[in-house]
Amino acid sequence: MPDELKQAHCHKEDVLSLPGIDPKEICLLDPSAKEPLKPEDADTFKYFLFGGILGDDPPRDRTKELRKLGFVGRHLGPIQMSTDTAVNVTKRVVVDKVPLDEVPYIDSPEVYFSKHESVNLPYRYIAETKTITTKDGETKTIRKPLMPPGMLELIKKDNDRTLDF
């Protein structure tokens, strides 16, 4: 496990049954919430509940099951994002104090596996800016989606599967 995650605690139990957790300290990351997540929310909430962030395109509002439990909600913008991206964005906003609209994003990126093979990801990712040198020796700045290690390989493997009808 990466060092930065060694203090993380994973639970299988219902969030409301965990001892010592006040539901008022829980913020539900909810695409349908009226208010965006703000840096000052770090003063209000101790826990952030992620669920239903990434689903079908278009979304089916799976978060409604958690919304029924009465948690205060905040949204991360109008475009769906992967759960790892939602966690990363939340950390940047509440821990690093970066306003939500100042996090660099890339929407619906096309990821290339080869000259003739690519896939479009219909979600929002944090944009990672890289400077590369082309075959012609030209320096170029590109924006790529920030993804966890192994994600591109997983997407490629999934993309290589045959469709059985």
UniProtKB/TrEMBL annotation:
<dbReference type="Pfam" id="PF04252">
    <property type="entry name" value="SFM1-like"/>
</dbReference>
<keyword id="KW-0489">Methyltransferase</keyword>
<dbReference type="InterPro" id="IPR007364">
    <property type="entry name" value="SFM1-like"/>
</dbReference>
<protein>
    <submittedName>
        <fullName>SAM-dependent RNA methyltransferase</fullName>
    </submittedName>
</protein>
<dbReference type="GO" id="GO:0035241">
    <property type="term" value="F:protein-arginine omega-N monomethyltransferase activity"/>
</dbReference>
<keyword id="KW-0808">Transferase</keyword>
<dbReference type="GO" id="GO:0032259">
    <property type="term" value="P:methylation"/>
</dbReference>
